[in-house]
């Protein structure tokens, strides 16, 4: 359950990283269409981000579940006992390139963090404020945890596709979106509530 | 139709400066993931969600403005974030259905 590959997309050996989660579509899709965007969010699968906690160490980790009723039973993994802690509605998706027919799955992505939702003392916030002056909105792609507690990697090639997909949709003049990898190590200090996920609506309403 | 015109017609309370953009349509949702997956650039978002992540999602997909229904009001830091992102936020005592009805009556489709 929680120990399995979240979304089935662990990084593969280094030589393959640029291609992971990528599959070619039929040749008919390669003809392109000048009237539609090049990139499209596709295979949108609603589900839940399940956050579980280890009973003794209180370590937390998360994974995606597309099951209609998310699993909540505690289970043993070696000497550790993991149990359900919290969940948020979310979705996973792929991005399809209509020009090449390639489809890139983003199963390792837990969610995006907007710079302004990060701590005001963080480097991300300072960089985000600077970028905002040039109408660039900074987001960080936060990935799921691997079983050993590290984070799954998101290759730069995939981030390029993600950035292109979101920027292509923009219509506001001069506006740009820049989605960065978590080179800041934010996952070590983030709360899940800072990431763009749908926790209970009541819980999401900030106290004013 | 422009955002300012809609705000005037619906007598919306302006919580941020109005960044007067063209409204291409309306999306009604309280879910961040739904907005990211389905809202379109230039859409006017109608919601009761006041969390900063709602603003983050709206900014990501280039929502032109947000109407917060049922008298709800985002915290001041969220309003500052919105102003920086040039996303206008309005408040109204109307519920989402009433807002949708009035938007339709103004000619928004």
Word description of this protein:
The complex is a heterodimer of chains A (208) and B (109). Chain A is mostly beta strands and 208 residues long. Chain A has one domain (6-204). Chain A has helices at residues 123-132, 156-169, 201-204, and strands at residues 22-24, 39-54, 60-65, 75-77, 80-97, 102-105, 109-114, 136-143, 176-181. In chain A, strands 1, 2, 3, 4, 5 and 6 form a six-stranded antiparallel β-sheet that branches. A three-stranded mixed β-sheet of chain A has the order 7-8-9. The longest helix of chain A has 14 residues, at 156-169. Chain A starts with 21 loop residues before the first strand and ends with a helix. Mean pLDDT of chain A is 81; it is low at 1-32 and 201-208. Chain B is an alpha/beta fold and 109 residues long. Chain B contains five helices and five strands. Chain B has a five-stranded mixed β-sheet, with helices on both faces. In chain B, 39% of the residues lie in helices and 17% in strands. The longest helix of chain B is centred in the last third of the chain and has 11 residues, at 96-106. The interface between A and B is medium-sized, with 33 and 37 residues.
